[in-house]
Amino acid sequence: MIKTFELSDSRQVIPVWFLGDIHYGHESCNVEKLQEYISWAKKEKAYTLIMGDLIENSMPTWMPETMWSQKKIPHEQIDDIVKLLEPIKDKILCIFQGNHEKRTFKLTGFDVTREIAEKLKCYYQRLGGFIRIKIKNQTYNICIHHGYGASQNPRFHIQKALQAWRGMDILAIGHLHQLYLEKLSYYTPEGRESVIAIRTGGFLDYPEYALERFMPVAELGAPIVHLHSNQHKIHTEPYGLND
């Protein structure tokens, strides 16, 4: 089943951004950069798709050393991230679960992301999949997944996803903390089709575990797409407010 969002918006160009991998509570979370984006989204009335890993949620069963990089306990992380997102909650279309929130779900069955979604009164879709955005006579199919695994190649999960999923205008995957965009085109019996594939960045500066594992240093931020309402057209700002 595909969740459809019909936007009552008279603008010809609608901004939508992909917010994820904040890791709020970690000492390396760049809250100032996050607040810059939230202020922009409020001012521009941008719609938000939340990709997961809103909070750090470290615990002894996963990379226990990262527990000591948390400035606040998970309960406080939940409360604070809700307060940060309150100004834009009316424009949050949906929230997806990340692997950091999933840690608690695996151990206890308590769904941290659902708790955040309920506090913000937003639609919650735990696992990735399709959503559909309708603006006037235009329909945009978006496939979203938080992502998984340790691969640092931004194309790895894009290629895997495109083997399983078709019929989308945008494919958005988080987890990697990299800002990356690629437009892929292919021919079908109906004619030429294309998909914009995005890795959705994040707000975690270079943490100690990344340094130890020689992970690439990612640019902070979130990608923004602009959906046109009078024609089927998408233009992108892959590096968000850094462009």
Give the termini distance in whole angstroms. Answer: 36 Å
The total of beta strands comes to 12
User: What is the spatial order of strands in the main beta sheet?
Assistant: 1-6-7-8-10-9
Please give the radius of gyration in angstroms: 17 Å
Stretches with pLDDT under 50, minimum 5 residues:
none
Considering the chains and any ligands shown, give keywords for the structure.
243 residues; alpha/beta; 6-stranded mixed β-sheet; 24% helix
Structural commentary:
It is built from six helices and twelve strands. The N and C termini lie far apart (36 Å). It has a six-stranded mixed beta sheet with strand order 1-6-7-8-10-9, with helices on one face. The protein is an alpha/beta fold and 243 residues long.
